[in-house]
Amino acid sequence: MTRAKNTPAPNDIPIRIGVSRCLLGELVRYDGGHRRDPFLTDVLGQYVEWVPICPEAEAGMGTPREPMQLVGDPRTPRLVTIETRRDMSTSLDRFTEQKLASLELDDVSGYIFKKNSPSCGIEQVPVITRQGRPVRTGVGLFARAFMNRFPLVPVEDEGRLGDPAIRENFIERVFCYRRFHDLVRTGITRQAMVRFHTVHKYLLLAHSPQYYIALGRLVGHAARYRPKELSAKYGDLFMQTLAMRTTVRKHVNVLHHLVGYFKTRLGAPEKIELLGVIDDYHRGLVPLIAPLTLIKHYVRTFDVSYLRDQVYLHPHPNELMLRNHA
Ligand code: SF4
Predict the structure, then answer these.
(1) pLDDT digits (tens, 9 = 90+) for 22-32
(2) Is residue 92 within 6 Å of ligand 1 at its C-beta?
(3) Distance from Cα 115 to the centre of ligand 1, integer Å
(4) Which of 13, 35, 181, 311 has a CA between 20 and 30 Å from the CA of residue 195?
């Protein structure tokens, strides 16, 4: 695991992400195979510590094993072997209960699940209804229990992570969750809350101006709440905001706000160049990293301390190149 350069890593404890074990190349699938995902093993794995879990193998079902499927009511399905029709739900539930308790101590800041799996899939998992009709509205039993127990922890599946925007958003949320979790762990005070909210200002704005204002109001009225209540309310809204998709338009709005901090200090040619790069980004000619690189250069040149600490400028390790897509 490599330390993320330029990214505010709150302390030395590594960022832990839960992951379906087969995605790391472990031979735990029902057929004795794996589904190694090179982005996870070769790229993301350099920056995080994995917490690998295979619910089926670790629940004692063996590898290889008979394949299973979800059966029954899509909201509360059973996990049943396809040929011999054995109901494995109780074994899996027993394992899940113990595992989730231990994950509390592991402090995972995210989870990447294997798509379509009756144990690990987070959405659109096939379910055979009581009428024998297949529908794709199921959620894997372990994944569902995880999401219920840790509602704020970002989750994705490896299929969705193939989309560059979803990948960036997920990793951004993982780092943000971790910072928020550290804030809670060290004890929320009004001052700490204001500081936390301030450094996330432009990142939140890039997701939702409305939610950014709502979070600001909450922090402004922090004195009305007990610390636990405040952290629950803020954490919930904070993670909800970050889950909202950014758009080119929202980014352009934020970029113009940032330019406002040093516009008067730029000469006419530099100003034209910078606004031109933002416009190129707006028109889809260059990726977000282009205007951001120029802005970061001016933040350093003019030593704009308020912007230097903004998470928006370094939400995750540069080496992951998550903002390089047009
Ligand atoms: S999808 Fe989940 S249960 Fe299936 S092999 Fe991978 S980790 Fe194990």
Answers:
(1) 999 999 999 99
(2) no
(3) 9
(4) 13
